[in-house]
């Protein structure tokens, strides 16, 4: 069984650099877990600790319920795939794939069986007699994965395995890796700095910042209910908009008010007013995803359009388009607000979106987020 468990793991490198700070994480047998976060947040350190390539300063690591802190990497029953693939250049694909099994003195026909099964699974049967230099990046990637598969380990560890591929290949390889996991059900711990890769691959995503786990959950839970501003900013593209302001209460209820005099005022849903009560009159950050803004000027001027569900929302912002980025079905508008703050709206494409045009935007109050002030501010609305 390939469960993995970190209990209060810390890694302090010589010189006092903190790689990971008191990390606890339970990974079920067969689960696909992705560690994601900006460069330097401790993803590789976590993976290398699990592989036995680094020694923990504190805490316990278990693989299949066995404490492995003092177990040699080769005896941990895991297989790691690195960003640079680390293939032996002088060996054929077949030799590369079978290397670990030959070291272990696995019987020849068993090696043959495993290599040919893995090669078939990865579509590299024709490449078995080539050398790595005779392969494309994508083919090398497959060989590196094949080398991990033939070992039939308790867990696969991947450290940014797609980073060296071009954008198109990255997207197709990522789907292949997911399909592979759906066939093999091998516990997988996967590291990437790319939130889209994390979202698309993971059963659960672990968002890290400065050596600390900020949130663990299924992709859509992180997208819909980020625990803090950091997770909110990291998950989703384009990133969530953040507008600084404060909460005020008046006769009509609680509202978010932008700091500046000419700023905006957005009512908080009555259902949420209890949760924000302690933050009244304090600085807070409004969060709104670019996908959750609507062009209310377009709605007003287009009474024949399908406005179903949009009618209730009055304009929340009026601003000036700084840049319009057509993407096809949608256009990203970078909008400057009168206060000097700015935001991005992803809207259904219209030919009329031009730089320097004014635009009124409505937002869906149910889709807005509120955070305590600061880059790591805790979510106020998350139940
Ligand atoms: P990530 O993989 O998320 O980019 P790492 O796990 O490689 O991050 O690094 C986490 C932190 O630990 C960084 O601040 C990094 O500089 C530091 N670090 C990593 N390896 C070493 C090392 N061998 N010696 C000292 N500091 C290190
Ligand atoms: Mg790394």
Strand content bin:
25-35%
User: Tell me, what's the shape?
Assistant: elongated
Order of helix and strand elements from N to C terminus: EEEHEEEHHHEHEHEEHHEEEHEEHEEEEE
Uncertain stretches: 301-311
Order of strands, main sheet, comes to 6-7-8-3-9-10
Name the structural class.
alpha+beta
* Main sheet makeup: 6 strands, mixed
Mean pLDDT: 92
> Helix count?
10
Small molecules in complex: adenosine-5'-diphosphate, magnesium ion
The Cα radius of gyration reads 25 Å
- Helical content (DSSP H or I, runs of 4+): 10-25%
N→C terminal distance: 35 Å
Report the strand count: 20
Describe this structure as you would to a colleague.
- A hairpin with a 2-residue loop joins β4 (58-63) and β5 (66-67).
- The protein starts with a strand and ends in an 11-residue tail after the last strand.
- It has helices at 43-51, 93-103, 108-122, 137-149, 167-184, 195-201, 219-224, 229-234, 273-276, 296-300, and strands at 4-12, 18-27, 32-36, 58-63, 66-67, 78-81, 155-159, 187-192, 204-209, 212-217, 241-250, 253-258, 265-267, 283-288, 293-295, 315-326, 330-336, 342-348, 358-363, 369-372.
- The strands form four sheets. The chain has a six-stranded mixed beta sheet with strand order 6-7-8-3-9-10, sandwiched between helices. It has a five-stranded antiparallel beta sheet with strand order 13-12-11-14-20.
- 25% of the residues lie in helices and 32% in strands.
- α2 (93-103) runs parallel beside α4 (137-149).
- With 383 residues, the protein is α+β, with helices and mostly antiparallel strands.
- The site of magnesium ion has 2 residues, from α1.
């Amino acid at each position: 069984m390939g469960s993995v468990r970190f209990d209060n793991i810390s890694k302090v490198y010589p010189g006092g650099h903190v790689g990971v700070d008191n990390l606890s994480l339970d990974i079920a047998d067969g689960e696909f877990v992705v560690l994601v976060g900006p460069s330097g947040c401790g993803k590789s350190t976590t993976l290398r600790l699990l592989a036995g390539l680094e020694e923990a300063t504190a805490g316990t690591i278990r693989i299949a319920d066995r404490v492995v802190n003092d177990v040699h990497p080769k005896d941990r029953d895991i297989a790691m795939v690195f960003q640079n693939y680390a293939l032996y250049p002088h060996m054929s694909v077949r030799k590369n794939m079978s290397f670990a099994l030959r070291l272990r003195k696995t019987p020849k026909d068993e090696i043959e069986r495993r290599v040919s099964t893995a090669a078939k699974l990865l579509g590299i049967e024709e490449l078995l007699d080539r050398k790595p230099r005779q392969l494309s990046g994508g083919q090398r990637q497959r060989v590196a994965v094949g080398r991990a598969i033939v070992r039939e380990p308790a867990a696969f560890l991947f450290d940014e395995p797609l980073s060296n591929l071009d954008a198109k290949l990255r997207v197709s390889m990522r789907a292949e890796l997911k399909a592979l996991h759906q066939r093999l059900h091998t516990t997988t711990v996967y590291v990437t700095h790319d939130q889209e890769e994390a979202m698309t691959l993971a059963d659960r995503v672990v968002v890290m910042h400065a050596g600390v786990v900020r949130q663990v959950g299924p992709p859509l839970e992180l997208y819909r209910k980020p625990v803090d501003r950091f997770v909110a900013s990291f998950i989703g593209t384009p990133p969530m908009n953040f507008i600084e302001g404060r909460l005020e209460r008046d006769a009509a209820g609680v509202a978010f008010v932008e700091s500046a005099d000419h700023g905006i005022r957005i009512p908080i849903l009555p259902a949420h007013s209890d949760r924000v009560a302690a933050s009244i009159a304090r600085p807070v950050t409004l969060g709104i995803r670019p996908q959750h803004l609507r062009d209310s000027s377009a709605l007003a001027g287009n009474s024949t359009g399908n406005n179903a569900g949009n009618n209730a929302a009055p304009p929340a912002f009026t601003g000036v388009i700084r840049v319009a980025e057509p993407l096809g079905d949608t256009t990203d508008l970078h909008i400057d607000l009168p206060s000097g703050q700015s935001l991005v709206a992803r809207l259904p494409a219209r030919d009329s979106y031009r730089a320097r045009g004014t635009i009124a935007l409505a937002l869906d109050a149910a889709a807005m987020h509120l955070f305590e002030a600061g880059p790591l501010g805790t979510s106020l609305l998350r139940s």
